[in-house]
Every structure is written in structure tokens, then in C-alpha cells.
Fold:
Amino acid sequence: MHKTKLAFLLALSDLKNPLNEEEKQTLTDIAKHLHIQPLAWTNHTEPMLLKMIQSNPQLNKQYNQYTTQFEQLPEKSQILSGIEQEIKSLMVNPDFSQINLKAQSRDEK
Structure:
């Protein structure tokens, strides 16, 4: 799995506030595009994701922290490999209605 995707998913799980409806729609579009055209990641899908990340200051901050940490790891560490497998299993049938439940539950407390 590409480090961009992994850093994004980890950053998303750390968000204190859930994504807004426009961000959720963008993420749904990205997921559909990735599913339909996985080879278009570098030229089309990754730039869409990075644009969405950059438009959300909190998400962008978390994303940058994770990418910095990944740059310090060996290229294919066992930690990343294990996380990749777990994420791939979750991506088989993505359900974006469940995005940011962690953030929503914090808000309810």
C-alpha cells in the first residue's frame, strides 16, 4: 500500500471533528475512482486525495505528522506491512457512512 493512503487513513482516524459532507462526498468519489481505475492512482486519484487533505487544516497536520514518521522508517517495514494487510481487508467493501465514528463518539461525551 502506498504511504499516502496509509498516512491519510491514520490521520483520518485521529481527527477530533468528523469530515464535513463535502469532504465525505470527495472521499467517496476518490474511493470509487480508485476501485474502478486503480492504475490511475498517481496521475489522478492521489492528487484528488492530497487536495482534500490540504483543504482540511486538522487533517493536513495529522497527515504531515504521519508522512514524516514514515519517511524515517525502512522502506518496507514489518509494521507497515501488517497495517497494510489490515487496511486492505477493510477496503474490500468500504462503508463511508462509518467515517470518523471515533471523532463523533468523542463529541458525544
